[in-house]
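INFO  loader      accepted 1 record
INFO  loader      residues=190
INFO  predictor   begin
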Amino acid sequence: MRFFLFAFLTVLFAGIIPIEARGQALDAIDDAYAIGPGDLLDVRVFGEPEVSSMVTVRIDGRISLPLAGEFMAAGEAPEKLASDIRESLERYIDSPKVTVIVAENRSKSYYILGQVGSPGEYTIRQPVTVIQAIARAGGFLEWANKRRIMVVSGPGTAETIAFFNYNDFLSRPDSKQNIVVQPGDTIVVP
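INFO  predictor   done
INFO  writer      dumping C-alpha cells
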C-alpha cells in the first residue's frame, strides 16, 4: 500500500503538467487577471475616501462609482480599470491616485459532478489540472468510471469535450490528457 501511495504522490508532484491542444501549460499562463462578473473589487482613491468603495462587478460586467460614473470592468485587468477610473476622475480631482484590487475572485470557477466525494462548483484561485480538481473534490467514489472522465469546455454550440483516463495517467504520467481546467469547464466523472 505504501508503494502505491508513494507512486501516486511522485506522479502528482513531479511537476508533470502535460497539456493537450486546447489547454495550456501552467508556466505559460498569462499573469494578467481578467476581471469577471461577480468579482468583488476594492477601488481606492488616495486621499478621497468618499470616492473609494468596495464594488461587485454586475452580471453585465459593469461597475458604478460615485463621481467617476460607470465602467466596463469585465475582461479588463485591474491596472487598466484603475487607469480608466483615474482618467474619469481627473475632471474633478487633481492628479487622482487610483488602485483597483480584486478582493474576492468570484467569477473564475469550474464544476465537477458525478462519482466524486464532493461534487459542486469550485473557485479557481490558482491554475488547477484535472487530477488536482478531482483530488479537490474528494477523489473518486467506489463506482466511478476512471477511464471515461469528460471535461466539457466552451459555451453553447462551441462546446468541446476532452476525455481523461485516470488509469492511463497513472501508467503513463507523460500523458497529454491532464489539461489545465479553464473557467466555466465542467468535469464529469461517470
